[in-house]
User: Which sequence fits this backbone?
């Protein structure tokens, strides 16, 4: 079992806004209440409401030091919504003598700009490099705050973004609302392959895997032993599967379990020293796959399948039922198309 | 679009939605945004001005009196919890929202109608129950959060109405647009896949998928309406077990779950279909566990 070590070497609050201890990152509770009150007092006109909703939203980023010169901005264990502004995924910041190196840029332009400020306040430097682990919108829409040449991702991530990015942007606007204002898709200017990039005294070992999507980058920084696993690893938050390839995901998890890692940063969930995240992700995927297949083989409809019982241990996993329902919607059509025999006959 | 959420904010309520684009192309009436704003206004007004309007409706829909008139005319109806509608707690893909309507807790159901108050086309489908259970699962397109209802007509002429509100707000890190690959749909239209499953009570559960674009005719690209409008579930002897009237909101490649009382000796379930262009489709799903299915499925298929 993993030894959990969450020592706070140095913690800080980034961003210009007040942080609210109660609500963590995202709009403060008080601000939210004030907005709600303002809304209630408004005439029922769409435009007027939009003005009220445009009251300043501010991600108050709270970096948590995981080892010397490495911080994580934790995403909240929630679905993307208008309270959290999509800040649900972890972002990692490394201090190097050439500037900050960041893994994943967050959900929006506004987040990206706060992230630059945050990195500067932590390191006293600008940003030398931003690696993107995969193409999901909660990890990449902060890109606008950076030079395209500073943004680096595997070719598969860049291609995926080019194809799906506009749809992701619409979906994010729909889900997170005004937090997304001004956000546009920016494609990375640098392609990452398996290898090592030395930046300011640190060694970033990049490995391109797959399974959560068709291209998932993991970044291991050799001097600190910090491994940023992206969404190949979730911890205490249910994994998402909209673009999953389960066999590939499993072999990527096997790969991760063999890495010499001091600290593993999951895409969502707490940083730990051991492999609890990788193990839990593997177990979750196995349960989901098995439960959905069983429901499918009994002939259940999707809605019936969604009510299948899940094992007790999943009760402590945030969004377990939510992600299970989503996974039913992701996997059922493939099972139907792939398993049922053709039955049409000539007239 | 901005309107609905803060007012109806329900923390912890899960939400994720597929991007608009794909849906929009196929289903958009005025374009997703325009429509969303107008509907959002309607929802916003709900508690205040529509209170009287939806007073007798457990879901408080401003459209309820119109729905009543459209689906029940002068017939009597009751709200009845025994008529269940299952929807996911999140809309993952607005073009493919799974819905199950189940009135098996009622006796003597003749018809099961599914409709969605706030859809551009409200009527989704009507199941005619002959030798079948009042049960249907399918996927549908939605533009916006909407009540999704099932109304079961019993032999005494009363409609029993159940339903839920489908929350389509939110979205995010989710499936990409399921835009159809236009280059190859003509090759696959009419292809069917399916399987029969044994129910404990001896009835037969049929799951079935028929490839068809199901164009609503409402898309901005002027794609004309092109959809499966009728399916007939029959025994080997040609007896009708259930009928299904399908409307535009049913998703591309309709994928259905039904429960029929297939005669014990029958080798398979025959499904006859027709689209609004008059094209006919025929499928036979074998009851693989039955002795008769072994040799006879082929024979049934030949008929
Ligand atoms: Zn992801």
Assistant:
């Amino acid at each position: 079992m993993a030894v959990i070590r969450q020592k706070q070497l140095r913690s800080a609050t980034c961003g210009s806004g007040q942080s609210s201890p109660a609500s963590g990152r995202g709009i403060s509770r008080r601000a939210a209440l004030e907005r709600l009150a303002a809304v209630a007092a408004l005439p029922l006109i769409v435009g007027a409401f939009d003005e009220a909703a445009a009251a300043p939203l501010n991600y108050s980023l709270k970096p948590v030091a995981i080892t010397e010169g490495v911080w994580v901005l934790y995403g909240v264990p929630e679905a993307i919504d208008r309270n959290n502004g999509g800040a649900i995924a972890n972002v990692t910041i490394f201090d190097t003598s050439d500037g900050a190196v960041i893994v994943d840029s967050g959900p929006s332009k506004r987040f990206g700009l706060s992230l630059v400020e945050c990195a500067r306040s932590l390191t006293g430097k600008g940003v030398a490099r931003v690696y993107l682990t995969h193409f999901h919108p909660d990890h990449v829409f902060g890109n606008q705050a950076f030079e395209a040449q500073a943004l680096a991702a595997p070719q598969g991530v860049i291609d995926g973004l080019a194809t799906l990015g506009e749809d992701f942007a619409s979906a994010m606007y729909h889900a997170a609302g005004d937090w997304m204002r001004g956000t546009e898709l920016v494609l990375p200017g640098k392609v990452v392959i398996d290898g090592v990039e030395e930046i300011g005294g640190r060694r970033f070992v990049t490995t391109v895997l797959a399974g959560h999507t068709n291209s998932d980058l993991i970044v291991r920084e050799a001097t600190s032993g910090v491994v940023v696993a992206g969404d190949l690893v979730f911890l205490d938050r249910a994994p998402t599967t909209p673009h999953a390839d389960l066999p590939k995901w499993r072999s990527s998890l096997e790969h991760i379990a063999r890495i010499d890692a001091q600290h593993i940063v999951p895409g969502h969930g707490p940083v730990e020293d051991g492999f609890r995240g990788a193990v839990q992700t593997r177990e979750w995927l196995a349960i989901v796959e098995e439960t959905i297949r069983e429901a499918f083989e009994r002939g259940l409809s999707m809605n019936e399948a969604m009510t299948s019982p899940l094992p007790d241990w999943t009760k402590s996993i945030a969004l377990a039922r939510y992600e299970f329902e989503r996974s039913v919607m992701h996997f059922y059509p493939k099972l139907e198309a792939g398993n049922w025999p053709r039955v049409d006959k000539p007239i | 679009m901005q309107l609905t959420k803060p007012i109806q904010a329900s923390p912890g309520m899960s939400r994720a939605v597929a991007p608009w684009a794909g849906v929009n192309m196929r289903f958009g009436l005025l374009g997703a945004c325009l429509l969303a704003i107008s509907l959002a206004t309607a929802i916003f007004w709900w508690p205040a001005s529509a209170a009287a309007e939806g007073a007798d409706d457990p879901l408080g829909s401003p459209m309820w009196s119109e729905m009543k008139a459209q689906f029940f005319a002068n017939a009597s109806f009751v709200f009845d919890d025994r008529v269940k509608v299952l929807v996911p707690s999140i809309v993952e893909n607005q073009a493919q929202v799974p819905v199950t309507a189940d009135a098996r807790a009622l006796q003597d159901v003749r018809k099961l109608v599914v409709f969605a108050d706030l859809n551009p086309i409200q009527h989704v489908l009507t199941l005619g129950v002959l030798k079948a259970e009042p049960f249907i699962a399918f996927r549908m397109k939605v533009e916006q959060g909407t009540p999704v209802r099932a109304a079961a007509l019993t032999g005494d002429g009363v409609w029993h109405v159940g339903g839920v509100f489908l929350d389509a707000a939110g979205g995010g890190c989710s499936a990409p647009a399921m835009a159809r690959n236009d280059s190859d749909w003509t090759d696959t239209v009419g292809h069917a896949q399916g399987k029969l499953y044994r129910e404990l009570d001896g009835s037969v559960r049929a799951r079935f998928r028929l490839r068809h674009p199901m164009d609503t005719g409402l898309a901005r690209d002027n794609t004309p309406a092109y959809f499966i409008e009728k399916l007939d579930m029959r025994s080997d002897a040609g007896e009708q077990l259930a009928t299904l009237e399908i409307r535009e909101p049913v998703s591309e490649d309709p994928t259905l779950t039904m429960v029929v009382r297939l005669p014990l000796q029958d080798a398979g379930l025959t499904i006859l279909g027709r689209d609004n262009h008059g094209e006919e489709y025929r499928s036979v799903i074998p009851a693989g566990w039955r002795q008769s299915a072994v040799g006879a499925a082929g024979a049934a298929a030949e008929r």
About this structure: Chain A is about 35% helix and 20% strand.
